[in-house]
């Protein structure tokens, strides 16, 4: 099985490290790759959309699982799919939507693999209704450090360690996933403006239960009485009766548009406080004060950035940090304080979203807990960024919150135990399951996972 030495980075394009990249094309090759892991071990990798160093392994092996990408069976009547872990959500949507089914949870990109969706226990705009991705997994096949392939089901310690376990319990080979029925590939969307953070939280609290999907873009450069102003977007899959007559002949058509890719080289300094401030002002002002029932393409509602390949290049060679945290209900003052600090710090973020999480998921390292989650992007070369985010980490931890490991690239390990109470259980299971440390990543080394 050929291997090449490559520089590997996350989607944020920070802290690249060098590893041997191996691409298994059969389950047997995956077993061989794991058994032949050297002293620096190996880590599975999908389409590289984890923002930080979760799918990097300096000096070791990285197993590119996208060569295992077959859909084996679709239960059209029961609503489930059995597929390889290397299948992307995009590929699933192409296969499932014409049959009237949709993936149960999708993040802001459909270019993630099923294995990555389980390993990061991804969430979407519907967490308050549907939970995270792993809640919909019926079973999975896991290749463990001893070369054994195990069938793993919900309700077991191994499943709960694997869901959100960032690939550190083994290599997911296949998964069976329950699906969401849909009648069309259009969304019925309500959009409204919120004047500040308190207005936004009040709207979400009062009416979120009416919507399957809900998200707010938030202006983190706005200050004063406008601090936390936002555009709130919510909706559900449109029924057939909501479509205009011309669209009813092909209600399940799925043809996402794509724009030209971002250039390979982007001048430094493109995303400044001034340019991002201008973008944010225009984005907020152009949004309707209140609009109901607008029909939008599924891809535009869920994955607008997928229309621009390699959009992460717009941050320049320095890359960017994606920072996401959650604090529980009753900790709104912490959220207000952090939003105010970011606004006063003038962090140039134009991709900032606020959502409400529902019930916690069973994964020991799963990110969501009931409460408020804020995600924002920040150019990595912003002066003093590391120290500033360290202060936010401490504030989040003190409030009983946590940061999202799938997006993290710089958290200190001393805060991890406070953020993830089942961390010791995870470490103990890892020690029992993988005593030689076959599965390891830059993230695992940095956080002593």
Gap between N and C termini = 29 Å
Mean pLDDT: 95
Uncertain stretches of 5 or more adjacent residues: none
Beta-strand content: 15-25%
Shape: globular
Radius of gyration: 21 Å
The main sheet comes to: 8 strands, antiparallel
Helical/strand content category: alpha+beta
Q: How many DSSP helices?
A: 13
Q: Numbering strands along the chain, what is their spatial order in the largest sheet?
A: 15-12-14-13-17-18-16-19
How helix-rich are the residues, as a percent range? 10-25%
Number of strands: 19
Based on the model shown, name its key terms.
globular; 5-stranded antiparallel sheet; 8-stranded antiparallel sheet; 449 residues; single chain; alpha+beta
Please describe what this structure looks like.
- The longest helix has 14 residues, at 273-286.
- The chain is of the alpha+beta class and 449 residues long.
- It is globular.
- Strands 15-12-14-13-17-18-16-19 form an 8-stranded antiparallel β-sheet.
- 25% of the residues lie in helices and 24% in strands.
Write the layout of secondary structure elements.
Layout: E1 3-8, E2 17-22, H1 27-35, E3 42-45, E4 61-64, E5 71-75, E6 80-84, H2 89-96, E7 101-102, H3 114-119, H4 127-130, E8 137-143, E9 149-152, H5 157-162, E10 171-178, E11 180-181, E12 186-194, H6 197-207, E13 213-218, E14 230-237, H7 273-286, E15 290-297, H8 298-302, E16 320-328, H9 332-345, E17 353-357, E18 371-379, H10 385-398, E19 402-403, H11 416-419, H12 423-433, H13 442-447
Parallel strand pairs: 2-4, 3-4
Antiparallel strand pairs: 1-2, 5-6, 6-10, 7-11, 8-9, 8-10, 12-14, 12-15, 13-14, 13-17, 16-18, 16-19, 17-18
């Amino acid at each position: 099985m050929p291997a090449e030495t490559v520089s590997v980075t996350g989607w944020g394009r920070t802290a690249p490290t060098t590893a041997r990249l191996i691409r298994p094309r059969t389950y047997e090759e995956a077993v061989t790759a794991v058994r032949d892991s050297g002293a620096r071990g190996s880590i599975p990798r999908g389409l590289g959309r984890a923002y930080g160093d979760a799918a990097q392994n300096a000096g070791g092996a990285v197993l590119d699982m996208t060569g295992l990408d077959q859909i084996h069976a679709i239960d059209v009547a029961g609503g489930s799919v059995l597929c390889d872990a290397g299948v992307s959500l995009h590929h699933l949507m192409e296969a499932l939507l014409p049959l009237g089914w949709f993936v149960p949870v999708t993040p802001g990109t459909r270019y993630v693999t099923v294995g990555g969706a389980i390993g990061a226990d991804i969430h979407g705009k519907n967490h308050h209704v549907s939970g995270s991705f792993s809640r919909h997994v019926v079973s999975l096949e896991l290749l463990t450090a001893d070369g054994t392939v195990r069938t793993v089901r919900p309700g077991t310690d191994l499943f709960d360690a694997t869901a959100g376990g960032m690939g550190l319990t083994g290599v997911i080979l296949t998964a069976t996933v329950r699906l969401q029925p849909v009648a069309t590939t259009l969304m019925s969307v309500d959009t409204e403006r919120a004047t500040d953070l308190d207005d936004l939280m009040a709207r979400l609290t009062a009416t979120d239960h009416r919507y399957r999907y809900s998200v707010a873009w938030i202006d983190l450069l706005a200050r004063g009485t406008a601090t936390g102003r936002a555009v709130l977007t919510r909706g559900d899959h449109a029924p057939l009766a909501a479509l205009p007559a011309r669209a009813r002949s092909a209600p399940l058509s799925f043809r996402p548009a794509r724009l030209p890719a971002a250039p390979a080289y982007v001048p430094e300094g493109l995303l400044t406080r001034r340019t991002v401030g201008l973008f944010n002002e225009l984005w907020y002002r152009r949004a309707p004060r209140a609009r109901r029932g607008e029909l939008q393409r599924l891809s535009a509602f869920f994955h607008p950035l997928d229309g621009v390949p390699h959009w992460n290049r717009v941050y320049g060679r320095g890359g960017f940090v994606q920072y996401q945290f959650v604090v529980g209900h009753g900790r709104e003052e912490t959220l207000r304080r952090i939003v105010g600090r970011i606004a006063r710090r003038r962090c140039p973020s134009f991709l900032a979203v606020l959502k409400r999480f529902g019930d916690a998921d069973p994964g020991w390292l799963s990110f969501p807990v009931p409460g408020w989650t804020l995600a924002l992007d920040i150019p990595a070369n912003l002066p003093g960024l590391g120290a500033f985010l360290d202060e936010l980490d401490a504030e989040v931890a003190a409030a009983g919150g946590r940061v999202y490991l799938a997006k993290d690239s710089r958290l200190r390990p001393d805060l991890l135990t406070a953020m993830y109470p089942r961390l010791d259980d995870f470490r103990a299971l890892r020690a029992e399951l993988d005593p030689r440390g076959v599965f390891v990543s830059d993230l695992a080394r940095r956080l002593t996972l």
